[in-house]
Write a structure and sequence with these properties.
The radius of gyration is 18 Å and the shape is elongated. It has a 6-stranded parallel β-sheet, with helices on both faces. Strands 5-4-6 form a 3-stranded antiparallel β-sheet. The longest helix has 13 residues. It is α/β, with parallel strands linked by helices. Helix 7 links the parallel strand 2 and strand 3. It contains 11 helices and 9 strands. Helix 1 packs across helix 11 and helix 6 runs parallel beside helix 11. The protein binds zinc ion (ZN). The site of zinc ion has 7 residues, from loops.
Length: 242
């Protein structure tokens, strides 16, 4: 049986699906992968992206942080793709319980998904460090230099920077979702990014499926591995199920 057909069988048989996604979900929207070889991390900047996207760098070099942030993390006119779309449809059909994502672009919500656990935060939420006033992404990306609050405080994106901890409630909910689902689909991630790998240990359901272009060190932990584009896989799922 074709691997994608087998995944479709799994989806048909499942009552509670959780999708765990990484950067690869959004690269097919044209967004650059932070960590792939030809992605952000090999491009030239005075500092490494890990350095720039760290807590201490934000606090000490706020202007340089924002130069990089606005240049590299803005989704601009990019849109969600077929994978986001089909996941939203599966939720609507009552098949999919939640999406756990390492992405900060907000594409899942733009595609209509309701329950999205954003492990690394979102560029769509930004708060004044002084008065906690909310600002949307356009305010931040359209600002000159450092985005400032009307109170004079500096605005900080609700994005988990290096050296910062993940949100405790989000982790708790993600672990709960993974431990209760019967089908876990992992897509577009090599699972190298903390805490992805530790999460899948909580899976206790029937099938764990990995969809990723390249092989990962977790391939042998899954009972189905598809080395193909997410777009191709989810186009077929849409045709058969949605
Ligand atoms: Zn303020």
């Amino acid at each position: 049986m074709d691997k994608i057909d087998l995944l479709i069988e799994y989806i048909k048989d499942s009552k509670k699906i959780v999708f765990f996604g990484g950067a690869g979900v959004s690269t097919e929207s044209g967004l650059k992968d932070f960590r792939s070889k030809d992605g952000l991390y090999n491009e030239k900047y005075d500092f490494s992206p890990e350095e720039i996207l760290s807590h201490h760098f934000f606090m000490n070099n706020t202007l340089d942080f924002y130069r990089f942030y606005k240049d590299k993390l803005n989704i601009g006119n990019l849109k969600y793709n077929i994978t986001h779309e089909v996941l939203a449809l599966l939720e609507k059909k009552g098949k999919l319980s939640s999406i756990i994502t390492q992405n900060i672009d907000g594409f899942h919500q733009m595609a209509g998904s309701k329950k999205v656990l954003e492990l690394h935060g979102s560029i769509h939420r930004n708060y004044c460090m002084e008065c906690n006033m909310f600002y949307d992404k356009d305010y931040v990306f359209d600002s000159e230099g450092i985005p400032m609050c009307s109170c004079g405080g500096i605005i900080k994106p609700d994005v988990v920077l290096y050296e910062e901890g993940l949100d405790g409630d989000t982790i708790k909910e993600a672990v709960k979702e993974i431990s209760e689902c019967d089908l876990l689909i992992i897509g577009g991630t090599s699972l190298n990014v903390y805490p992805a790998a530790s999460f899948i240990g909580y899976f206790n359901g029937k099938h764990m499926v990995l969809i990723n272009r390249d092989t990962t060190s977790y391939d042998n932990m899954c009972d189905l591995v598809i080395h193909d584009s997410l777009g191709k896989v989810f186009t077929k799922i849409k045709k058969e199920i949605c």
